[in-house]
User: What shape does this take?
Amino acid sequence: MPIGHTSAQMALRDPDIRLMLRVRDDDATAFAEVVERFQHRLVAVMHHLVGNADEAEDLAQEVFLRVYRTRKKYTPKAKFSTWLFTIANNLALNALRDRKRRPVLPLEVRDSGPLGPRPNEATAATRDEPPAHKLQQQELAEVIRGALDGLNERQRVAIVLNKFEDMNYADIAEVMGLTTKAVKSLLSRARAKLREALQGYVYMDSDAPVPGDEVGDDA
Amino acid sequence: MTDLPPMPDEDTALPADPLEAELVAYLDGELDPDAARRVEDRLATDPEARAKAASLKKTFDLLDYLPKPEPSPTFATRTLDRLPALSATSAHASASSSRPVLLATRNTRQSQLQAPPVPAVAPTSWKLWAAGILVAVSACAAAGYFASAAFSPHTKDTTDELMLADHRVVENLPLYAAADDIDFVRELGKFEFFGEEPTVVFTMKVPTVEPRELATATFETLKESFKAMPHARQHAVRELDRQLHADKDHDRLMRVLEVYAIWVSQLPDAKRKDLLTATTASRRLDEVRDLRERQWREGLPATQRAQLDGMSAEEKGKLIGQWKADELARREDWAEFRRLAPDMVENRIPWPFDDATRRKEIIEFMRVAYRTDDAKKCRFTQEDYTRYQTAITAAERANGWSWYAYGKQVHELSRKYELFPEPATGDPVTTYAQLGAAGKFFDKEKGPAYKATADKVGKWPEFALVVHGISPFMKGERLPPLGPAKPGDFKEPLRLFVTRDLSAKLGTTEKAVLQGLEGRWPDYPRELVRLAGQHNLTAPGLMPPGPPHDWKTIYGFSPRFPRP
Assistant: This one.
């Protein structure tokens, strides 16, 4: 047990916490610094969740504003980034529920591909057709986007945090207000769905570049 | 988190395929070692499971093909604009006086600065720019870190918007203007330069002065100065800013820069020009060093300066050297104390006593080497013995930092009471009888020799040492070896240590010197211990267990103030 877990000690360990404590004390420069430090990550995460650049920026902005508005109540308990993404999680889930931008096609419906109806989409190969080996990156991106959209909101948040923020289950659990067991279950379902949706697009014969290494490397 | 509906059952229920869940957790590195091993065993034997794992991994990796959007260039500014307007008063009202404000001290210093005139013509070389900038800033006496004005509508409406990152660079421009790069700053932070300046060293204690806001006009001036810098210089300054903010020692380095910048701005014009026009960072550091040296001399108390007056150049040099050495020693002591202070405050058990085994080893070492368990047989003086016993009793009772006092005892006593190896065979020399024919020299009737040695009889190594001390006066008498003085005569762990461990570390000259001393007591064992300490080795039985360098670092100084 550490001897004392005061704000001072946490601040000493985490420079982001130090920064946030200055924001709490109305230091506008510190807040600008917070925005600068986290804007890329937040906008990226929101974009992965909602699929739209403008909305992603709006949401990211809301997160920062909420950080600022609730600054007086901030007490450092864990990593600053965990706290930040907790706010992001709340806002994202609310947004995903409120904005019924498209009907969610359950992937269990087998006769359609993994794509939902979207305005500018190109027709890419469906699950049942053999994937063209020279699939353009953009088309692939849209296919993947569709696969991600096929997850429910919580699955999507968990996957995005796991993949793009490199969060471990414990941190995801904290951000989402779940147990690690629930996170494990959530991720496993999400990954299974992704696997079904994207299986056809994986080049097993390593013809095309697939980012990532051999099985087990990231274990 | 209170307004979200409960999770759909399908997410929390057991996954349709428990193996899948295990595989995913395994790929994410989230399984404990036993569970991981089970998965690995399964993967090794089950090709279907392997295929599934590969597929799970690769489909997950496909997510990397999603576009990675960057926030639009105006994202940050738009976000900040949505904040409630920050007025000067509202921003300062909640600044608490106990909070350590970065660079707050700058303002107390600034108020003491004169206001030199702002140069009318803009110089072209960056170095002269730096001088101009500093002068301009100090003239405005407003280089506070707080910059609400930077986000005011005025700045936003300029056609040339600075990127948000450059805001910070511009605000700090007075600090960066006279510095080369991060290595330069780190050098300045060493104690020969500005590292021991009070405002650099003392952080929490400085009372906060409400930071003055950076007036728009000042910010604009700085911004123009920055934009007018050659691109290479802009890049260097941005790089410095980035590296400083990424450094874990960031706060301290900023304080160093601040002290340095103020010091530069206070230099006489000619000296400042010399400094800023130095062509390389290392030449600039030399300039800084020379100027500081001169200032130090000019800053000596009148009496000391008077002392120097009557002296020849050589004498002056010596005396100054002495003073500087004293000052250096004091600063080093203080720095060491500051290093240990946190442990002291936290009542942590200091090295090497924080490990129970090592602790026992050390206590045992002292017992065997000095007979600390027996007041009569112990080598220490009565006073030293009492002090030792007090220290160990207090440490064992109170635990925590009180072991430090014991450690000091161990370190000091083991140096005060030299240890010499006892012979592998036979008894150590502690009586006249063992001196052979030369024993007659110490005959009771002979007087002085007897008097000098009588009270040491029976004590090793005191008797041998005092006899050795007298030996130059023993004309014609040949003494037998007073103690083992070559590896072959040592007891086992020591012999092996010398021939194997120490020998491996010695340079050719060292080896030659040591070998040359073989047979000479006490020179050989003394040199052996000295070399061991230098090479950070512990000669068994002759030195306390643990690396000598660590002992020296932690216990080798004397704080000149009471310990808790």
Remarks:
- The CA atoms of residues 24 and 156 of chain A lie 31 Å apart.
- The radius of gyration of chain A is 20 Å.
- Chain A touches chain B through 71 residues (CB under 8 Å).
- Confidence is low (pLDDT under 50) at residues 104-131, 204-219 of chain A.
